Structure formats: structure tokens, C-alpha cells
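In response to the reviewer comment on reproducibility (Comment 2.3), we provide here a single inverse folding case reported in full, input and output, so that an independent group could reproduce the run without further information from us. The C-alpha cells appear first.
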């Protein structure tokens, strides 16, 4: 079974980037253990500063930051759990991440994940998702798995009992799903359904998927929901904006850009309803965006319905 190092070497990743992935996979191992064992409220541990950890996402953030500080290839980080981007070293790599996406789902034992975009930049302001050189998504479910891309396609690895990440699937492809007339072989993940109350175009789109008998797969966690599309090879995840939040809830830098790079590298698409997510320029770290991501035809359907 191929391991991560040999896969990355085969994909042409240099030693420096392979080293960054080493720090990330070590972090995923530790977060995976914490998610399975630590309390979801006060988790009864203290970080390196002696502060009691107050929440899983803070704990996960601390794990990532402490690992990345040890890596001389890393210079800059930005996290959903930090107030601003932070220079942590002299390296050329800049990492932006949501350390534990869906952390509010841990206490009900739903799957959650870590989302990481990797750049070679001195600041994140002004970047586009296309500037990413790599991305990693970790899924903490019954198994701990990761998707990664160095822009040579997408591969999935699973964490085994020996703590190794073993290649499970390479060249992951997202197509249009079965050509069966009914949607029964198709999947949809309609987020932010509350938007249907004010956005009738979204209501019509959701009704289309229902009438065409698409299968609902929505967990409330972006990582497991998109993991489902990547592994089934078809489907669409939607999270539109609405009157209260015209740009929706999901963050461009920490969630949507890494997810969109992985999806496009797997042959899918990701749009805000008008343009590719990966073309959107980051104006501020908080920036949110509507997102429609998955099978190309379905993403186009969303754009056509909502424009
Ligand atoms: P809603 C989790 O909190 C998250 O950030 C994403 O992982 C998920 O797709 C979305 O929010 C769920 O939002 O409105 O369904 O709770």
C-alpha cells in the first residue's frame, strides 16, 4: 500500500512541501484522537501556555499552530480561530485553515473535519483560491481520512492503527452521476434551507431536486457532506446567502477555497452562483461567500437557477 511520502514524491512535490504535509498529518492524528476522547465542552487539558482549553476548535487550532511552529518551511498562518493572520516563522509557506469545521457537531457525535489551504504568500489579503499550491481536508468519522491535492489530481488516505496514512483512492473523479432519467442515483446537500423563505429561486431549485427524486445527503458538516460527493463521484452541496446574510455563512479563505481546489482537481466545479470560487479575491479574512460545489452540471444548474 502506497504511503503519503511516496505519493507526494510521485506527484512531484518537493521536500519542503512534503515536510509541510508531515506537520499537517501529525496534527490530524492528534486532532483525531482529541475528537474521539476529549470532552466537547471544557476538555480538561491545558495548552502550552497553561490556559485551560475551552472548546474543541480552540484545542484543534492549538494543535495545528504548535505543529506548524516547529516547521521551518512555514512562515504565515491564518485560522478561523485567530483574530488575524500571524507570522510564526521564516518559511515560504502560508497556511489558512478551519481547524475543526462543524465543531458544534462533536457533542452529538456527527462527523467533523479540518480544512487547510496552502499558499506561497507573505499575506492572505488579495489572494485568490487559484493561488493555492495545495490543499488538505481531514474527515473525522468512523475512520479518519484525508483528501489532498498538490494540483495533480486528488487522492484519499486513511489513518491506520499504526498511525500511518495509507493510500485508499487516487485520481478521485466527480462526474455527473448515473445517466438514469430519474435523479434517484443523484445526491443533493441543500444547506441554508431557511433562505427558501426569502429566496424563491432557491426554493424552486430545492423543489426541482426533490421532484427529480434526488437523494438527500446533508449532515450539517461541510466536510462530511463534500466527502460524500468526492467518494460517490457525484452530487451537489449548496449554501446560498439570503436577506439576513447575503454572502451566506461559509468563509472564502478557510473553508470554500480549499474545498473548491479539491473539487476542481477532482473534475467537479465550485461557484458562488456567478464566478468560480477560486477566482474570488480575498478582501478580508472574514470574507464569506455563497457556494455551490460538486458535479459540474449541478453547479451550473444552481448558477442558472439563482442568477
Ligand atoms: P447550517 C458548520 O457549522 C458549518 O460551518 C459547515 O460545516 C456546514 O456546512 C454549515 O456550517 C452548516 O450550516 O446553517 O446548516 O447549520
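Designed residues, in position order:
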Amino acid at each position: 500500500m502506497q504511503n503519503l511520502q511516496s505519493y507526494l514524491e510521485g506527484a512531484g512535490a518537493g521536500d519542503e512541501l512534503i515536510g509541510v504535509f508531515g506537520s499537517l498529518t501529525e496534527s490530524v492524528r492528534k486532532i483525531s484522537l482529541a475528537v474521539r476522547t476529549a470532552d466537547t465542552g471544557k476538555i480538561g487539558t491545558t495548552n502550552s501556555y497553561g490556559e485551560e482549553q475551552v472548546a474543541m476548535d480552540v484545542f484543534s487550532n492549538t494543535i495545528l499552530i504548535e505543529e506548524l511552529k516547529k516547521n521551518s518551511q512555514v512562515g504565515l498562518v491564518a485560522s478561523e480561530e485567530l483574530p488575524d493572520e500571524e507570522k510564526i516563522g521564516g518559511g515560504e509557506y502560508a497556511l489558512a485553515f478551519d481547524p475543526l469545521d462543524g465543531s458544534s457537531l462533536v457533542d452529538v457525535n456527527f462527523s467533523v473535519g479540518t480544512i487547510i489551504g496552502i499558499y506561497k504568500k507573505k499575506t492572505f489579503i488579495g489572494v485568490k483560491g487559484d493561488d493555492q499550491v495545495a490543499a488538505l481536508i481531514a474527515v473525522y468519522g468512523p475512520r479518519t481520512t484525508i483528501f489532498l491535492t498538490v494540483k495533480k489530481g486528488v487522492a484519499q488516505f486513511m489513518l491506520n492503527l499504526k498511525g500511518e496514512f495509507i493510500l485508499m483512492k487516487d485520481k478521485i473523479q466527480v462526474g455527473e452521476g448515473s445517466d438514469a432519467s430519474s435523479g434517484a442515483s443523484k445526491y443533493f446537500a441543500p444547506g441554508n434551507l431557511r433562505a427558501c423563505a426569502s429566496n424563491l429561486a432557491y426554493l424552486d431549485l430545492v423543489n426541482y431536486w426533490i421532484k427529480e427524486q434526488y437523494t438527500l445527503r446533508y449532515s450539517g458538516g461541510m466536510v462530511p457532506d463534500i466527502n460524500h460527493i468526492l467518494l460517490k463521484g457525484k452530487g451537489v452541496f449548496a449554501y446560498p446567502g439570503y436577506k439576513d446574510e447575503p454572502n451566506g455563512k461559509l468563509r472564502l479563505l478557510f473553508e470554500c477555497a480549499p474545498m473548491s481546489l479539491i473539487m476542481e482537481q477532482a473534475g467537479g466545479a465550485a461557484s458562488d452562483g456567478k464566478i468560480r470560487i477560486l477566482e474570488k479575491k480575498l478582501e478580508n479574512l472574514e470574507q464569506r461567500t455563497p457556494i455551490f460545489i460538486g458535479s459540474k452540471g449541478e453547479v451550473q444548474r444552481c448558477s442558472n437557477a439563482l442568477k
